[in-house]
């Protein structure tokens, strides 16, 4: 039986073959490499164009004078905008919404009045045919409408309408008796 048939013989053969390949690969004969390097060095080299000349740009200094800086927000300006053109009226956005504030004012109809314990109440019908009882001070409609007065023929209220500048304006509105 030969040595290569045993596991130890196979390993010895592989190690010997690897050593022979390494020694043959590391020979001192590098004439091909030297010839290639010489050929590359002898090629004509291209010229690199000089960098373009950088032109000096004249600086411009903007003098605003008394004008405000457009890149800063002034605190006074914010305070004016918060009040808006409506004289500073703002709805209370933190209060609990009443049920009729979920309906548009034009979808509500006054259908009657009644008086209980000296308080005048109005009966208001919604678009889904539900009748609600309201009194002065209640809120109706989607524009923060507060009921000011109830008569036998109408519910008078004040709405707060956004002025488009972060503020609100008051607008008078009413629900007239129908049916």
SSE order and pairing:
Elements: H1 7-25, H2 31-42, H3 75-83, E1 109-116, E2 119-125, E3 131-134, E4 139-140, E5 145-150, E6 154-162, E7 168-176
Antiparallel strand pairs: 1-2, 2-3, 4-5, 5-6, 6-7
Entry keywords:
179 residues; alpha+beta; SH3 type barrels; 3 helices; 25% strand
Mean pLDDT: 83
Shape: elongated
The CATH level-2 architecture of the domain at 75-176 is identified as: Roll
Low-confidence stretches: 77-86
**Portion of residues in helices?**
10-25%
Largest sheet: 4 strands, antiparallel
User: So what's the CATH class of the domain at 75-176?
Assistant: Mainly Beta
Lateral strand order in the biggest sheet: 4-5-6-7
Number of strands: 7
Task: Write the CATH fold name of the domain at 75-176.
Answer: SH3 type barrels
Number of DSSP helical runs: 3
Strand content: 25-35%
Distance between the termini: 120 Å
- Multimerization status: single chain
Tell me the Rg in angstroms.
46 Å
Protein name: Pilus assembly protein PilP
Organism: Candidatus Sedimenticola endophacoides
InterPro entries: PilP
């Amino acid at each position: 039986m030969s040595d290569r048939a045993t596991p130890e013989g196979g390993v010895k053969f592989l190690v010997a073959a690897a050593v022979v390949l390494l020694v043959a690969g590391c020979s001192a004969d590098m004439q091909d490499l030297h010839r290639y390097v010489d050929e590359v060095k002898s090629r004509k080299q291209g010229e690199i164009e000089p960098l373009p000349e950088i032109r000096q740009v004249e600086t411009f200094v903007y003098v605003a004078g008394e004008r405000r800086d457009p890149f800063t927000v002034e605190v006074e300006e914010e305070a004016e905008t918060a009040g808006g053109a409506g004289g500073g009226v703002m709805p209370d956005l933190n209060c609990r919404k009443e049920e009729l504030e979920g309906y548009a004012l034009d979808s509500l109809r006054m259908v009657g009045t009644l008086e209980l314990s000296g308080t005048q109440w109005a009966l208001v019908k919604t678009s889904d045919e539900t009748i609600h009882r309201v009194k002065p001070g209640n809120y109706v409609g989607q524009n923060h409408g507060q009921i000011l007065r109830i008569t036998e023929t109408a519910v008078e209220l004040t709405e707060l309408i956004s002025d488009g500048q972060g503020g609100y304006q008051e607008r008078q509105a009413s629900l007239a008796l129908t049916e």
